[in-house]
Amino acid sequence: MLAGALLASDAGASRVKQRPHFNAAMPMTSAWLNEENARIGDGTWLSGPAAPAGAIEGYTNVTSVNKGRSITVFVSSASDSYDAKIYRIGYYRGLGARLVEKRSGLKGRLQVIPAPDQYGTVDCHWPASFTIDTDHRYVPGQYLIRLELPNGQYSFVPFMVRDDSSRATYAYMSAVTTWQAYNTWGGFSLYRGASQLGVSGFNNAQRAVRVSFNRPYDRNFANGAADFIGNEFPLLFLAERHSLDLTYLTDVDLDLRGDLLLGHRALLSLGHDEYYSPSMRTAVTNAISAGVNVAFFGANFCYRKIRFEEGVNGPDRLMVNYRSTADPIYLVNPSLATVNWSNWPSDLPESTFSGSRYAGVDGIGSLVVEDSSSWLWDGTGLANGDVLAGALGGEFNHYDPASVNPANVQIFAHSPVGGGVSDTTYVASPGQGGVFSSGTGQWIYHLSNAPLLGTSWVPGPIASTTAALSKATENVLALFGQGPAGTTSPSVSNITDFY
């Protein structure tokens, strides 16, 4: 038992069931990533003063680029010169990043912030500033461009280098559609609009119904890095520390080339993976049926239904979300109307394939362990009823008996939170991939354990809690790396113990 954990009650102990033997050995490490981790890191990627709004910011023409291809960067700078430091993010002996390339003395120019159109779309048409050729220096992975002014102030621009030929064990997926949904740069997001932000002349006073990837991320959104550092980086840091056999993509890639999932054993969905197009959802459900495991480490996944439109830089640059049948496409093709997935005419809550459903935003609480003999808690020393203090926060999911669920949902944690109950669930049907759902929006956030980076950006670990969640995460990675979990460790329903 971990220090500070509560003793299991007799009732909790009675819920212990025998499970198939679990092989906790981490499979499929990557030789190239092991070599990459041995390279010299650079811990200064998070140091220095953040640039004020409008001082320097940028975006790329695509969210990800296949290795060997080029990516274009668009920059607005209040200074007539700036530097661009391009970092690959990973473990690197605890420093979290490697400096791949530096461009010095680039010519700066202040660009115009476009006015929103009738949909609340702020869509930049800036001239190209520079191009990155992803040659041999740019191995697959998550990258941040640090745009830096002569006075040291900086902001980030994220992009991904992927490898479409990869057959790696794990596909690490960055949830950029959710990043963009919450991005208020230019005054509008899918949540906020003129009435909240003081922008006049827009006919939807509440929020945008279409947003563009052709714009920077707001400086208040992790200084341009969007949701990456808090909701994604801790898992990447952990996975690369183990030199796991990874490939990298964004959820926009899931829309454009979702069949690539079938070449991998597991998809790793990160801290907030809310916005899904029909093609994205189909790619995930088809992969599960084909034996690909899917780990949703966050909550509120596959909740909002979206569609993409082509923009100035190509396909999937504009993202539409009305959240109702007011979507004009409803009159032409109701199946594409951007309602919530659980609402009519879709009627497909995420629980249909996961056994887990979005429950609310008040998810603060402590995780209460259940089914402690299961593979998830192997090696943690935890027993039923033990508590991981402060593990839960943000949005949360639960098992909903009134929803459409698989028959074999297994609950690993059943935890009271401010808005109800958070459930950590698992579904793995014979011959299919397994689906793990953490049930909380802060699972990945509480994996943070990078002391060399300080706590201003990456918080320190929570005593006992971070260690237990890290071990449980390693158990998910270990099981899901072995192949279809429905074959190696099918789920055993214990729903009647709780509902």
Helix-strand blueprint:
Layout: H1 10-13, H2 31-37, E1 56-60, E2 64-66, E3 70-77, E4 81-89, E5 97-107, E6 130-133, E7 141-148, E8 154-162, E9 170-174, H3 176-182, H4 194-197, E10 210-212, H5 228-231, H6 233-241, E11 246-250, H7 251-257, E12 266-269, E13 275-276, H8 278-289, E14 293-296, E15 304-305, E16 307-311, E17 314-320, H9 351-354, E18 357-360, E19 365-368, E20 387-392, E21 396-398, E22 410-417, E23 420-428, E24 434-437, H10 465-480, H11 485-488
Helix pairs in contact: 7-8
Please supply descriptive tags for the structure shown above:
five-stranded mixed β-sheet; 26% strand; globular; alpha/beta; disordered N terminus; seven-stranded mixed β-sheet; 16% helix; 499 residues
Summarize the structure.
The chain has helices at residues 10-13, 31-37, 176-182, 194-197, 228-231, 233-241, 251-257, 278-289, 351-354, 465-480, 485-488; strands at 56-60, 64-66, 70-77, 81-89, 97-107, 130-133, 141-148, 154-162, 170-174, 210-212, 246-250, 266-269, 275-276, 293-296, 304-305, 307-311, 314-320, 357-360, 365-368, 387-392, 396-398, 410-417, 420-428, 434-437. By secondary structure, the protein is an alpha/beta fold.
State the shape: globular
Main beta sheet strand tally, sense and closure: 7 strands, mixed
Strand content: 25-35%
Strand order of the main beta sheet, please?
Answer: 11-9-12-14-24-23-22
Got a strand count? Answer: 24
Helix proportion: 10-25%
Care to describe what's here?
The chain has 499 residues and is an alpha/beta fold. The protein has one domain (10-39, 165-497). Helix content is 16%, strand content 26%. The chain has eleven helices and 24 strands. It has helices at 10-13, 31-37, 176-182, 194-197, 228-231, 233-241, 251-257, 278-289, 351-354, 465-480, 485-488, and strands at residues 56-60, 64-66, 70-77, 81-89, 97-107, 130-133, 141-148, 154-162, 170-174, 210-212, 246-250, 266-269, 275-276, 293-296, 304-305, 307-311, 314-320, 357-360, 365-368, 387-392, 396-398, 410-417, 420-428, 434-437. The strands form seven sheets. The protein has a seven-stranded mixed β-sheet with strand order 11-9-12-14-24-23-22, sandwiched between helices. Strands 2-8-7-4-5 form a five-stranded mixed β-sheet. The two termini are 27 Å apart.
